[in-house]
Amino acid sequence: MSNKVKFGLKNVHYAVITETDGVITYDSPKSIPGAVNLTLDAAGESVQFYADDSVYFEENTNDGYTGSLEMALIPDEFRVDVLGDELDANGALIENKNAKAKHFALMFEFDGDAKKTRHVLYYVLASRPSVSGSTRTNTKEPQTETLNITARPAPDTGDVKAKVPQGETPYNDFYTAVYLKNAVTNTPDETALTFDKNSPADITVGVTSSGTTAVKNVLLDGVPIGGAYLTVAGEDVTIDQAVFAELNEGNYTVTVEFTRGNAVAVTVNVTDTSD
Question: How many angstroms separate the CA atoms of 231 and 204, rounded?
Answer without folding.
Answer: 9
